[in-house]
Each structure stands twice: as C-alpha cells, then as structure tokens.
C-alpha cells in the first residue's frame, strides 16, 4: 500500500513538472512565434535577419556560460534535495562559476565586435543582445528541475517573457526601431532570471562553497559543456555561417522558417526534462524499458508533423508571414520538416538516456562528431548552394545524431 502511494506520488510530481515545463517551453517558443510575423512585416527581412544573427551569437555565449550545468546541475541538485546544507553549497558553487563565466563571455563579445568589421558595423545590436546571456545564466531552471518544483518558476518566466512580447507589439513601429528588439528581449530574460534566482533562496542559503566541490563540478560538467557546444555547432552555427556567406536578408528568410521548426522540435524537450531527474534514479533496466516504450510514440508524432508540413507548408508560411520572398523558399521549409522525425528520437537517446546513465563523455563524443560534421558540411554546402546548403546540412546532422545515439542504445540495452 505504501509502495503504491509512493509510486502514485512520484507520478503526480512527474506529471506536474512535465506540465510546468511544457507551459514554460511553450512560452519560450510560442511567444516569439507570435512576434515573428509582426517583426518580419515591420522590420523587413534584412533588419529581422540582423536581429536573428545577433541572437545566434548570444546563443553561443549562453552555452559557454551554462557550461553543461543544465544537466549536471539538475542531477547534483536532485541527489542532494533532502539536505539543505549540501543543496545550498551546490547551488552557490554553480552560480559562482556562472557569474565568472559571464564576465569572460562579455570580454569575448567585446573583442569580436571591436576587431571584426562584420560585427562592428552593428556593434550595439550585438552588445544589447548580451542581456539574453545574463538572463539565461541567472535563471536556475536546473535547480527547480532538480528539486522537482517547476510551478512557480514557470509562472515567473512566462510573466517576464510577456513583458517583452507586449513591449515589442506596442513600441516597435518602423524599421528604424530594430535596435529596440534586443533591448526588450534582454529585458525579458533578465527580469525572469533575477526573479528565478531570488526564488531559490526559499530552499537554499548563501554559503561559501568548498574549492574542492567547485573543482569537481567544473570537471564533471566539462564534458557536458563540450557536447552542448558541439550541439550549438549544428543548431545556431547554421544561422551564423549563413550570415557570414550571404547577408541579413537570407538570414531573415532562413530564421523565419527555422523558428517554426525549432518550436516543433522542442515539443519533446519538456517531457525529457521532466523525466530526467526521475529516470536518473532508476535502475538501468527500468531506464531502458521506458526509452523503448517512448520511442514508437515519438516516431509516430514526428512522422505526423513532417507530413503536415509537406502537405500544408506553403499555406502555413502564407498565414504566418504573408511574405512573397519567404514563400518563394518553400523548398527550405520542406527539407527542414524532416527534423521533426529525426530530432525527437535523437534527443530521446542523446539528451535523455545517455545523461540518465551518466554517460557524459559518450554523449560528448557523439555531439562532437555531429557538430564537426555539420560545421564542415555546412561550410562546403553554403558556399555552393547558399540557404539550401544550410537546410540540407542541419537535417543531415539530426539524422546522423539519431543513428549514433540509437546504435549505442541498441548495443547496450540487452540484459
């Protein structure tokens, strides 16, 4: 009877966290999707592309500052959740490292915008976009995932993002207002980050962590950092490379479609994030059993989404953007649609299963292979085929990562 109660309680917590993460993820992608058509129309594809290009650079710096703590931090917090002193020490250790990395990241950004002409022309756009990095670093999603209390932090995050959304709709009126987009975007992230950070002190105290703990956490997260950075090479680097070889207008066209695909891709993320703390504590056999049960449903949903895009893609783009230039690149949207199939399964094996069995280095190696392959293929294909080369390289990389993740799972899932 007690065992059944505990199991029901665990399922209830898991369901609540999944719903909270689903709402949080929806806010992170649906709110920007509401803004995208508005920004494309008001700013034009050229200035919209510039803003997206600056955001892609901010994503690289965000990954650097996160340093893999989104996974390792969640696991550490989950294991120490019943010991407030230990919980406080881990939280403070991670935040100290993140704050130091913010300083380093800003230094890197200053060098980039002052040395390279491509960035110095619109220096202010890149500097103002750095607020995204600060906000993401302060916002401790990993902490609330670890203690499995996502409800309040979800409300806080959505409220802050709504501020950005409203400011854009109310105050952006012409192409010359493009400079305010990164300001409002950064403002939303920073407010969310500060409020989330303050909420943590309901569960932890300010303490000075042991140097040995900081050193261990940095060492254990280093492989996750490398794998996350490699992941960024096959996500944000595509916009970055395309921008270097083409121009802001083509970046704007590609970004308008990529944002839609990313929203689809990240449908799976809340489920995997909610399951991760729970799955980490299960036996290897239960972990494998759950992954096997989930795979057919993830595959079926991916196929359905891809089919919808292939059939109704032009209609979807026309309804959302109503832009002749974007509609003329419908083939890009069709190529990217296959990511819905590949990414869900790729994330199931590489973003849920491997971290849950603490195979951080293996995950790192897989992500490095994917990141390097994508970088090389993208550099080659973009030179030859422009925007089409970008779409082909990112879709191929998702497929490659799926194959690598599944190969390891299949080899090690037989008991």
Structure description:
The protein has 415 residues and is mainly α. It has helices at residues 2-66, 69-80, 84-115, 117-120, 123-128, 130-138, 141-146, 151-171, 180-199, 211-233, 236-245, 248-265, 269-280, 284-320, 324-327, 330-336, 339-356, 360-385, 387-412. The two termini are 30 Å apart. Helix 14 (284-320) packs antiparallel against helix 17. It is globular, with a radius of gyration of 21 Å.
What is the compact description of this entry?
This protein has 415 residues and is mostly helical.
Q: Which strand-content bin applies to the residues?
A: under 5%
Which structural class matches the secondary elements? mainly alpha
Number of separate helices: 19
Enumerate the spans where pLDDT stays under 50 for 5 or more consecutive residues. 1-6
Helix content: over 70%
Distance between the termini: 30 Å
Question: What is the overall shape?
Answer: globular
Oligomeric state: single chain
- Secondary-structure element sequence? HHHHHHHHHHHHHHHHHHH
């Amino acid at each position: 009877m007690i065992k059944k109660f505990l199991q029901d309680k665990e399922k209830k917590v898991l369901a609540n966290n999944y719903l909270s993460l689903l709402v949080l993820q929806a806010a992170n992608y649906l709110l920007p999707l509401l803004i995208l058509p508005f920004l494309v129309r008001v700013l034009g594809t050229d200035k919209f592309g510039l803003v997206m290009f600056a955001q892609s650079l901010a994503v690289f710096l965000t990954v650097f500052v996160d340093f893999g703590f989104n996974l390792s931090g969640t696991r550490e917090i989950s294991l120490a959740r019943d010991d407030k002193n230990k919980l406080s020490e881990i939280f403070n250790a991670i935040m100290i490292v993140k704050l130091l990395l913010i300083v380093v990241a800003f230094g890197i950004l200053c060098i980039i915008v002052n040395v390279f002409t491509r960035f110095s022309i619109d220096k202010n756009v890149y500097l103002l976009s750095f607020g995204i990095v600060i906000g993401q670093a302060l916002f401790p999603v990993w902490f609330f995932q670890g203690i499995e209390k996502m409800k309040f932090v979800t409300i806080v995050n959505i409220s802050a993002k709504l501020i950005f959304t409203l400011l854009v709709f109310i105050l952006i009126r012409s192409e010359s207002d493009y400079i305010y987009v990164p300001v409002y975007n950064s403002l939303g992230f920073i407010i969310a980050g500060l409020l989330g950070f303050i909420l943590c002190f309901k569960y932890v105290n300010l303490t000075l962590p042991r140097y040995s703990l900081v050193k261990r956490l940095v060492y254990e997260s280093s492989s996750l950092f490398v794998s996350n950075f490699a992941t960024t090479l096959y996500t944000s680097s595509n916009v970055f490379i395309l921008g270097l070889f083409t121009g802001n207008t083509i970046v704007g066209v590609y970004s308008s479609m990529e944002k839609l695909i990313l929203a689809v891709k990240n449908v799976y993320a809340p489920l995997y994030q909610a399951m991760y703390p729970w799955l980490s504590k299960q036996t290897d056999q239960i972990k494998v059993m759950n992954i096997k049960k989930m795979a057919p449903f993830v595959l079926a949903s991916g196929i359905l989404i891809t089919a919808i895009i292939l059939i109704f893609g032009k209609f979807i783009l026309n309804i959302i953007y109503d832009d002749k230039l974007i509609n003329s690149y419908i083939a890009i949207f069709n190529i990217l649609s296959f990511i819905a199939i590949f990414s869900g399964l790729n994330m199931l094996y590489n973003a849920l299963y491997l971290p849950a069995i603490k195979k951080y280095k293996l995950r790192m190696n897989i992500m490095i292979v994917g990141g390097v392959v994508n970088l090389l293929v993208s550099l080659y294909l973009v030179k030859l085929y422009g925007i089409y080369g970008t779409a082909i390289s990112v879709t191929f990389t998702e497929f490659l990562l799926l194959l690598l993740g599944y190969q390891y799972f299949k080899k090690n899932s037989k008991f």
